[in-house]
Amino acid sequence: MTPIIIVLIILVVLVIIALIKTIQVIPQASAAIVERFGRYTRTLSAGLNIVVPFIDTIRNRIDLREQVVPFPPQPVITQDNLVVNIDTVIYYQVTDARAATYEVASYIQAIEQLTVTTLRNIIGGMDLERTLTSREEINAALRGVLDEATGKWGIRVNRVELKAIEPPTSIQDSMEKQMRADRDKRAAILTAEGIRQSQILTAEGEKQSAILRAEGESKAAALKAEGEAQAIRTVFESIHAGDPDQKLLAYQYLQMLPKIAEGDANKLWIIPSELGDALKGLGGAIGNIPNAAAGGGDGGAVTRREAPRFDKD
């Protein structure tokens, strides 16, 4: 191989290397920092870019997408002197590739340390109970401090989340006992409320039942009285229409006398004074009963208008 061919091959290789270094392809949502002789020149955006080979160099390629960084648990002391371990997650995004490269040596480490110190300041002004129940407040305060501090680094903190807040084991046991007691108390209250409501509903049901029963009995009595009145009215109208004489009335009167004495509880019964008139009419009806037994009287009829009293026994 002659020296000319060797030189040509070297030139071709150099040209290829120069072309490779000249043409720079930057992916979407990325940026590249270009330095010329160690000094910042420009920032390459996504797409095809041309640089001066062997003079311009790519210092750093930065991802402009939102990043998620979890930090390990950090011990923090609360206002009531209790140590809790808090896990945090930071959602951040690089907005200025130049500032993120030259303003801070390692922005991830800087964000972590800033998160720890800020978290200690915030939690130090809260007691344990407030710490456990004020996550949104802690997140908002932490995000405000981080976003303000990282702005000069070309970083925007979009969100801060507390993954876990772990109090000491003894405190956890006490909290579990308290929660168990609260649940038992609520269960007892709900049981008592259920029994009370059941008794109220039962009483209301009995009340409604008694009212309906009384209304039914009242309506039944009214219907019965109305029926009896209708029967009496019908009988009266029938008797009135038949124009009964004294004989028939006297006979009906005598038929009702045995019913007066019915019942074992009747020890005394009274015969109305009108019985004499009824017997007189009946005597006249059955054929002029002789007056000999009465010594020529009026047929042995009771003439006094007083109501005789007879003992049933």
Describe the protein in words.
- With 313 residues, the protein is an alpha+beta fold.
- The protein has helices spanning 3-22, 97-102, 107-123, 128-133, 135-150, 169-242, 246-260, 275-285, and strands at residues 23-26, 30-36, 39-44, 47-50, 56-63, 67-77, 83-94, 155-166, 268-270, 309-311.
- The strands form four sheets. A three-stranded antiparallel beta sheet has the order 3-2-5. Strands 6-7-8 form a three-stranded antiparallel beta sheet.
- A hairpin with a 5-residue loop joins β6 (67-77) and β7.
- It is elongated.
List keywords for this structure.
single chain, about 325 residues, alpha+beta, three-stranded antiparallel β-sheet, 10 strands, about 55% helix, elongated, disordered C terminus
